[in-house]
Design a protein that fits this description.
Main location: mitochondrion
InterPro entries: FUN14
Order of helices and strands: HHHH
Strand content: under 5%
Distance between the termini: 65 Å
Family: Belongs to the FUN14 family.
Helix content: over 70%
Keywords: Membrane, Transmembrane, Transmembrane helix
Number of strands: 0
Shape: elongated
Number of helices: 4
Radius of gyration: 24 Å
GO biological process, one term: autophagy of mitochondrion
Length: 148
């Protein structure tokens, strides 16, 4: 038998962080969502209402589950820090911590204020052009929050 001329290269997946571009993925997801909303906006009122209700319920359900998990995690962390502080394992400088948190909060607020206006304009545009779907989404969202 003659040796094969083709040599296969083994692919173990991404080798660097450059292979996965988060911004590109976010843009693709954004364009996909916009396409879906445009396509649903062209469907009948019943389909718009069903799609809006289903997506609203899923969003509300997921947000409540994530909110509960985040609240539990943050609360447990604060409780653990306070127990460790009162037991003498660590010494927390609460004044310095408070100043640091306030500084970070100001930076976050400053960087997101422009983005909030753009997001509000997009949401208003979607609601104005797809009012039936938006009404279904709102009702579904509240049902998802209530039944999570």
């Amino acid at each position: 038998m003659a040796p094969s001329a083709a040599v296969s290269k083994r692919d173990d997946g991404p080798s660097t962080s450059d292979d996965f571009d988060l911004e590109k993925t976010a843009e693709e997801a954004k364009s996909l969502i916009e396409k879906i909303v445009r396509d649903v906006g062209k469907k009948s009122a019943t389909r718009q209402l069903i799609f809006g209700s289903a997506s609203g319920w899923a969003t509300g359900f997921i947000m409540m589950k994530l909110g509960k998990a985040a609240a539990f995690t943050v609360g447990s962390g604060i409780l653990a820090l306070q127990l460790a502080n009162s037991s003498g394992y660590i010494n927390i400088n609460w004044d310095k911590l408070t100043r640091g948190v306030e500084r970070v909060a100001e930076q976050v607020e400053g960087s997101t204020s422009d983005k909030k206006q753009g997001l509000l304009k997009k949401v208003r545009n979607i609601v104005e052009t797809n009012s039936i779907m938006a009404a279904g989404f709102t009702g579904g969202f509240f049902l998802g929050v209530a039944y999570s």
